Amino acid sequence: MKPLKLVPANDSFRALQLAVEVLDGTVAGFITPPEVLGVMPEVHGLPDQVEDHIGFIVESSGSTGAPKRIALSTDALLASANSSANRIGSGQWLLALPTNFIAGINVLVRSVVAYTQPILMNTQVPFTAEAFIRGSALMTEDRFTSLVPHQLSKLLQAAREDAFVFSELRKFKAILVGGQQPNWAEVLELQTMGVNVVVSYGMTETCGGCVYDGVPLDGVNIRLAGGRIAISGPTLAEDLGPEFVTNDLGELIGGKLEVLGRVDRVIVSGGLKVSLDRVEEAALALDGVDEVCAVAIESQWGQSVGLVYVGQERDFRELAELTIAARPQRLLKVASVPRLPSGKPDLIEVQRLLAG
Length: 356
Description:
Shape: globular
CATH topology of the largest domain: Rossmann fold
CATH superfamily of the largest domain: ANL, N-terminal domain
Strand order of the largest sheet: 7-6-8-9-10-11-12
């Protein structure tokens, strides 16, 4: 057994030191939510000691409900870091995501494995392109970073207006984007501009991204189980068994995985199945729409689509490529889409806004 050491998320340098200790095998780690006025948050239900093979205990983002605590072994964390490096290369990372979630922890672990000093952004304040570019300018080796889609959108908007931002983004050897379905039009625009955006798929249970651009990392195996994505390999969390059947629907096309969305992101409206992810994709394709989040709302049809969005006034009910059942029945323009600390949309808060 070894001690479980706690570090707050708003002390990224201590979190980096913790990652060093975890990979040395001297302690296991848990990164708590941020301190408030220098006081650590109350954290209940964690053991004082864990088994020797445990590396980090990590909370899932909890975008659809209460977060779960997931134990990841040191071997799984190292397998994830090494297979990622084999696919995209190794170098210096820019931390742009909170360290109490798996994407942020992965940046720290990959930095330790690569023997490089990451550039640590203040991830406890709202993300801005300006802060990101300031951090990027400090990098001295091959550049890598990991983002969620709304951060990528902010960088693209800045790159359209500022040639220096564009030139800095092109210097990254790889920009991973994951956590949810990206805006594919934005990904394509950046890739066409010469920015190497790599779309990552995974979750806390798989040590984060384990599929890059539809292709599993070395050692990771993907199959479909009743339409759901099933994952096996060395990056799985503890106590999952040899295979993890996710709540995500997918297709294998030409040997590549296409993620269709979560099972709980498919609703039945008037007897017809509607993908909320597909609604978001169609809405984001409209000119002048910057952010969207679609959720299920109660209606005379059982469930219908509710949508909050950021951007110009648009009539989303006229989206021709969507079925009548899929067209939003309740709309709300907002200044920004509510988000969790992980950067993912806060679906429960969006539902509350639409019910108000």
